[in-house]
Amino acid sequence: MSFEESIREIFQQELEKFKKSVSPAPTENEWLSEYPNMLTTSHVMEILGIKRAKLSELMNRSDFPVFKLAGTKVPKHKFIIWIENNTRWIEDNAQSSRKII
Q1: Could you tell me if residue 72 is inside a domain?
Q2: What mean pLDDT do residues 11-30 have?
Q3: Do 46 and 9 meet the contact criterion of CB atoms below 8 Å apart?
Q4: What are φ and ψ of residue 56, in 5° steps?
Q5: Three-class SS of residue 98?
Q6: Helix axes 41-48, 52-59, angle to 10 degrees
Q7: Strands, E, within the chain: which ranges?
Q8: Residue 1 lies in a domain
């Protein structure tokens, strides 16, 4: 076996080890599966990385999907659509967009 072949073999072995050690990135919105279909205000604050004052501002927006009949809840599917349509607001107001992106 030549030196180059040895290097290739070692590289392939190390690459396979690395691939096994890296967990795959979650697919789009897969991370939201840990949340219920009706999000609480705490869920929204956690997901967006905002505090109560920003949450209050957000809940008062006419375009934000709030369901207030049984407490203040946000339908998860409508929340996802709102995020997709309001990326600029999130970039300007969320402290951490780690989960969103």
Answers
A1: yes
A2: 74
A3: no
A4: -60, -45
A5: coil
A6: 110
A7: 38-39, 74-75
A8: no
The total number of structural domains that make up the chain: 1
- Give me 81's structure tokens: 């659509």
Residue entry with tokens 């599917």: 77
Structure tokens at 89: 């607001």
Q: Tell me if 13 is assigned to some domain.
A: no
- What is the pLDDT, as a whole number, of residue 101? 45
For residue 49, give the amino acid letter. G
DSSP label of 74 = E
Q: CA 37, CA 98: separation in Å to the nearest integer?
A: 21
Helix (H) or strand (E) holding 33: none
Print the domain residue range for 85. 24-93
Q: Give pLDDT tens digits for 27-56.
A: 656 778 889 999 999 999 999 999 999 999
The pLDDT assigned to 21 comes to 76
Residue type, 71: G
